Amino acid sequence: MTTKIAGLLAALFLSSTINAQPRKFAAAHIGLVYPxxxxxxxxxxxTNGFSxxxxxxxxxxxxxxxxxxxxxxxxxxxxxxxxxxFSNHVRNEMNGGQLAGFMNTVRHNTRGLQAAGFMNLAGSxxxxxxxxxxxxxxxxxxxxxxxxxxxxxxxxxxxxxxxxFMNSANNVDGLQMSGFINQAKDANVQIAGFINIxxxxxxxxxAGFINIxxxxDYPIAPINILKRGQKSLGVTVYDGTTTMATFRSGGxxxxxxxxxxxxxxxxxxLYAAEAGIGAHINIAKGxxxxxxxxxxxxxxxxxxxxLKSSFRIMPALSFGKKLEIFAGPSFNHVNGDDHNGDEISxxxxxxxxxxxxFNGLYFGFAGGLHYHL
Length: 373
Known about the structure:
Strand order of the largest sheet: 25-26-27-28-29-30-31-33
Mean pLDDT: 91
Number of strands: 33
Largest sheet: 8 strands, antiparallel, barrel
């Protein structure tokens, strides 16, 4: 969808052609609004050393400063700084800085800075785009894109994309970081609040919920769907008191853990849900050590709620390509409101109940089996 929208914007942005030939030079161009200026009706034929317009003006080239209360339009190149209360537009190249309250556009290459309250558009960028809502580049871009909502690089991007909601690019040599989603064909590093989508990831994917890729050795999220990764369903028993159905998914090194089950040690039924991340340490063929950190919530859906944070070291032995068994020690921290913590464990090495909150530390164990999908 973003590619189709970008294609339409590119067609509109790059389509029209206006012929203007530079025939005159003005050291200063002062005016109200075109054609009420010192260059008059032939303003589009002038190269200006300096331009100042109360409302708006046009020119062929700008060589240092162009400032307008509302909008400026340059038919060829602009060097230096463009300032406008609403928008700046350059038909060929911009070298310097564009600052506008609403929008900046450059048909071809921008070298320097585009900063707008709403949107920046450019053919290609060597520098930085800072937009309150969106930044869009139709060709190659190198530098920084920072937007309140979305950054879109139709082709390759080298540098850093930071957006409140979404980043999208073809090949990304650098970093994508967003509040919700990152999308790329190939990427180095993706960090998203909810989901990352890519094909080949050369570095790290970090997401609050899910990573999707063809391959990534270092996906960090509770769920990782990798075409050339590993996915397994299993049953895990924690401390002999909690039994969970678990799903582990990830790459060669990092993986995610989610699970749901039942705590059968307490007097009242407690239901458990788990999310975490882990790392494989390969020791020998068919034998590895899995390191896991997780957070598990326990509740009876009425008034009892506990949160257990755990770190586990679990040697794992494979039988063939599908089955793996594992077991090992864990270190756990339990936190609960208005409870004494005995519902979770009676083997605390340290515990404290103060101001209606319980905290406790204990050593435990975990074990189970995986079936690799």
